[in-house]
Amino acid sequence: MTIGQKGIALFNKYLSRQCDMICVTVKSNDPGYADHYQLLNILGNSAFRYINPLTIFTLRSIIRRHGITHLVLEHPYFGWLGVLLKKMTGVRLVVHSHNIESTRWKGQGKWWWPVLQRYEKMTHRHSDYNLFIQEADLNYAVETFGLVPRRCITATYGLEWQAPPTGEARSTARERIRRLHGIAGDEHLLFFNGAFNYAPNLNALLALAEHVVPLLNRKAGFRYKILICGINIPPDISARNWPNILVVGFVENIEDYFMAADVFLNPVIEGGGIKTKLVDALGYNCNVVSSRNGAIGVAPEWCNDKLLVTDNYDWQAFADAIPAAAALQNDIPAAFFDRFYWGNITGRVAAFLQEDYRNL
After folding, report:
1. Which of 30, 150, 238, 295 can pair with 290 through a Cys bridge, CB separation 3.0 to 4.6 Å?
2. Is 171 found in the same domain as 151?
3. CA–CA separation, 188 vs 165, rounded Å?
């Protein structure tokens, strides 16, 4: 399951506790992830599903048979389908945006991004409700797509727990990870993870190795190891002998690494949306050093000074912030969980969707 799929599954899990839900998805998705809601694996796995005209009749039948009142699209790509179903059935259309997709593809140099931007704009303008992953995306859509602000709400990525782990749990995890990887007691444990077939994560890893590590090595008395966890790490990178970097790869118990780390490193410069690993790290009470782009959607003032943000590409400032972050002893506040707990996020979304459209 990708991070995006996990976010959708958790959003559905907690929203389905607020209202009845049926999820229509591709045939390859595992029904075991559908918690508290019904999953219908009826869409094709190929990209042709996005333009298959027969899908409209199948979904129209489901909407009418089950008395569906709201149709939620994950991403704008099924916009044409949602708009037609809205006209045919009277269902209220909701677009759940995880990024501004056109700007994400623009950042990756795709020539066709203006075409997607027009399509994305059409989809959002025809929807009754628009959900955005963070405030910057919402503000961009209001200004660029001409959306009515009252039809928009932030529905961020969330956490399934409502309090940080205990100090004892973190100490136990730290000792376990130190023993597993042979890390000395006087070495600070730094951590970065991600899916490295995603270019922004891979570029962030290279920035750590090529820019941040040489600067850290000049800091007298600061001993450390950086643990790199995740999937699809290129073999040539795994085989490199980088000083003070341990390439671990995929692990089952990723929460142990978050709890063990003195500092989570987030040098991601590219990409949109919100960096889910940043939310996870702070939720595990980990101190964080992040680039400005990597921290979009999470304000330092929500984090009791546990999030240190440096300008994009300012690797000297990034390296300078790491020892300062490693010395922090403060805890993530309850207000952070008020904002990022899935139950609270979907509760706000459910209240928003239940409002009468005429009052928006």
Report:
1. 295
2. no
3. 19
3-state DSSP call for residue 224? strand
Kindly state the helix (H) or strand (E) to which residue 248 belongs, with its residue range.
Answer: strand 245-249
CA distance 128 to 200: 33
β-strand partners of 308: 289
Whole-prediction pTM = 0.92
Q: What is the mean pLDDT of each run of 10 residues along the chain (360 residues)?
A: 78 93 91 85 90 94 95 95 96 94 87 95 97 94 96 95 95 96 95 91 93 94 95 84 90 94 94 87 97 93 96 97 95 96 96 69
Same domain, 11 and 74: yes
Closest CA to 127 of 176, 72, 183, 178: 72
Structure tokens at 24: 């229509």
Amino acid letter for position 265: L
CATH code: domain of residue 96: 3.40.50.2000
CA distances from 139 to 99, 121, 135, 258 (A): 12, 13, 6, 32
What integer pLDDT is reported at residue 65 of this predicted model? 95
Q: Identify the residue whose tokens are 């020539």.
A: 111
Sign for the CA dihedral angle at 3, 22, 39, 126 comes to negative
